[in-house]
Amino acid sequence: MQDIYCQQIIPGKLKVDVIFETDTVMAFHHTQPYWENHVVIIPKAHIDSLSTYPNDAVLNKDFFEAIRVVTKLLEDNYGGCRISSNVGDYQTSKHLHWYVHQGERLRDESGDSLRK
Ligand SMILES: [Zn+2]
Predict the structure, then answer these.
(1) What is the CB-side half-sphere exposure of residue 35 using CA atoms within 13 A?
(2) Which terminus in the chain has less CB density within 10 A, N or C?
């Protein structure tokens, strides 16, 4: 099973532009963005998705702090943003991740460019 977060990003093999990080979560700019501004927020420990989320107090606190920091950054710079998380068949990577995004959509769900 491909899991770019556990295999590449969390161990530091694939360098990412980190915006916010604690012992349990990290937020970084998507390496191949689907929107003009596209931030990914992940737990550092593997969790499949929100449907298996452990509801851990420290993780809850860190996740919402990451969400606050990232959404404030995009709101301050661009006026607003959207946050989403896919589950099950909607996930291309089976590691829980939130997308916080703003601006024009650059690529479709399969990753193909929408730019003419
Ligand atoms: Zn994982």
Answers:
(1) 17
(2) C
Coil, strand or helix: which one is 71? helix
Looking at this protein, which amino acid is placed at residue 65?
Answer: E
Q: How many residues does the chain have?
A: 116
Summarised one tens digit per residue, pLDDT across range 47-65 is 999 999 999 999 999 999 9
Cα 2 to ligand 1 centroid, rounded to whole Å: 9
Q: How far is the CA of 4 from the centre of ligand 1 (A)?
A: 7
SS3 47: coil
Cα–Cα distance for residue pair 69/114, rounded to 1 Å:
29
CA of 77 to the centre of ligand 1 (A): 31
> Was domain 4-105 assigned CATH 3.30.428.10?
yes
Q: Whole-angstrom Cα distance, residue 91 to residue 65?
A: 24
**Residue 40 alpha carbon to ligand 1 centre in Å:** 14
User: Count of CB atoms within 10 A of residue 38's CB?
Assistant: 21
Ligand 1 midpoint to CA 76 (Å): 31
